[in-house]
Amino acid sequence: MADILVIEDEDNIATALDFLLTRDGHRHDRIATGKGAVDRIRETRPDLVLLDVMLPEVSGYQIVQDVRADPDLAGVRVLMMTARGSVVERRKGLALGADGFIAKPFELAELRAEMARLLG
User: Fold this and answer.
1) CA dist., res. 3 & res. 14, Å (int)
2) What is the SS3 assignment for 77?
3) Long-range contacts for 105-111 (Cβ within 8 Å, ≥24 apart)?
4) How far is residue 108's CA from residue 113's CA, in Å, rounded to a whole number?
5) pLDDT tier at 20, thresholds 50, 70, 90
6) How many CB atoms lie within 10 A of CB 116?
7) Are 70 and 42 contacting, i.e. CB atoms less than 8 angstroms apart?
8) Pfam families attached here (predicted)?
9) Cα–Cα distance between 25 and 20 in angstroms, integer?
């Protein structure tokens, strides 16, 4: 079981993630905007952050960059999610310090496998 923070503004995706994470026995919380996300990560120290790229106010790229700039958050794994899933976006996310990248809509098996890899 892991502590997971979901940062996702689309309710339908957040609902699907809520279902999956609950079923898999993970503790999780969600925020729907990028604003305040880094502060929440600092406060809660989740094992994994499921981070949308396109967020209101602050982008996922900015959030992962800020998390990686803080040595105290070195242990926090970040899995970025994007509707685009292009090679350029993936490269940018990984270059900024994301631990993994998954395109939306994702297969549950693919998401599970990527989470297991990052949490393992």
Assistant:
1) 16
2) strand
3) 105/13, 106/81, 108/20, 111/20
4) 9
5) very high
6) 11
7) yes
8) Response_reg
9) 9
| Alpha helices in the chain, H assignment, sequence order | 11-23, 37-44, 60-68, 87-95, 108-119
57 CB neighbour count, 10 Å cutoff: 11
Q: CA-CA distance, 52 to 98, in Å (whole number)?
A: 11
The token pair at 109 is: 């098996």
Q: What is the pLDDT of residue 83?
A: 78
* Contact (CB, 8 A) for 38 and 48: no
Please state the rounded mean pLDDT for residues 88-107.
Answer: 89
pLDDT, tens digit, 9 for 90 and up, residues 21-72:
999 999 999 999 999 999 999 999 999 999 999 999 999 999 999 999 999 9
> How many Cα atoms are found within 13 Å in the side-chain-facing hemisphere of 117?
12
Tell me the C-alpha distance between 50 and 102, whole Å.
10
- Kindly state the tokens that stand for 74: 């070195």
